[in-house]
């Protein structure tokens, strides 16, 4: 069922969501007030209505079910507010992103012409290194996030497309479906329409990929800034360990923490998370083995996490990115990466 194409309804009475109405009902635009109001949930109305209290006309033309879905995505992802400090390491990337992306979006008057932000940004690097976290941190800074039409109505906004290679891959799979070809074309067209230099549009498109070399050339041109998000350095790994150990009883000395960190060369951020979680399970397993009732226990009833737990955890959680892959990312970075 298409959205009604009539002008946005008037007044506020019709804006109350009518549960289960779906947007349905015949009658075209003739009884627009009631039907338009019934198409969207209260959350969507609150998110998308402009200063005049009306939903912009472009959005009214979209399928209400899709508007609802996209808007739920917006609300859900902004629920997990990520701040820059939540991302360990990646200092250079964080600085560059703030300089070329966040400030221009917050203060577009200053960042025009030669200072205009790039029209797109590609974050690339091994899986689990914080690309998605960076996307979320940008969105949290800008406070809004949405997709194309909705994004334009909500600007400044950020569209973050994870694993963008899966949509915009250069590889012509045998018998590529007509539908995926169409999706690809539509994506490229929409991305073109988001260029801040030509349209003054303040929608930033960010793609993330673990396979940058598989991207379509056309897609790469639309994401001209390519930022390498490498595996975390020792300092970042140390921050991750210390942060995760906050609130957990442990008896590791600073020297032991350094030892743990030194043993995790090549671990990604998500490997580190799994590794520390695994180590923290050590005292729980011991308690279970000795037949204690873990159900009623508090943190202080468990023995502290120790170096041995980390040594055991190392067997369970190996690094997930192999050295050959890292070389591949570094070569790609040499060739295409933004220098900073
Ligand atoms: P990707 O680079 O594949 O998008 P994510 O950003 O989704 O990786 O990271 C997956 C998880 O790993 C995060 O939710 C977080 O728990 C952890 N992680 C990865 N990188 C970092 C980092 N730099 N700082 C803190 N946690 C991280």
Could you explain how this protein is built, in words?
Residues 117-233 form the AAA+ ATPase domain. This is AAA+ ATPase domain-containing protein. Keywords: ATP-binding, Nucleotide-binding. This protein has 17 helices and four strands. The protein has 340 residues and is an alpha/beta fold. The protein has a four-stranded parallel sheet with strand order 2-3-1-4, with helices on both faces. Helix 5 (91-106) packs parallel to helix 6 (131-142), helix 12 packs across helix 13 and helix 12 packs parallel to helix 14. The longest helix is centred in the N-terminal third of the chain and has 16 residues, at 64-79. The radius of gyration is 24 Å and the shape is globular. The relative contact order is 0.11. The model is unreliable at 1-37 (pLDDT under 50). The protein binds adenosine-5'-diphosphate (ADP). Residues 87-90, 127-133, 208, 229, 232, 236, 240, 269-270, 273 line the site of adenosine-5'-diphosphate.
List the helices and strands and how they pair.
Elements: H1 32-39, H2 42-48, H3 57-60, H4 64-79, H5 91-106, E1 120-124, H6 131-142, H7 148-153, E2 157-161, H8 165-168, H9 178-192, H10 196-199, E3 203-209, H11 217-222, E4 225-228, H12 234-245, H13 254-262, H14 269-280, H15 282-289, H16 307-316, H17 323-336
Adenosine-5'-diphosphate is lined by residues 87-90, 127-133, 208, 229, 232, 236, 240, 269-270, 273.
- Coarse shape: globular
Share in β-strands: 5-15%
Q: Which regions have little confidence, pLDDT < 50, spanning 5+ residues?
A: 1-37
Oligomer: single chain
Q: What is the CA-based Rg, rounded? A: 24 Å
Overall pLDDT metric: 75
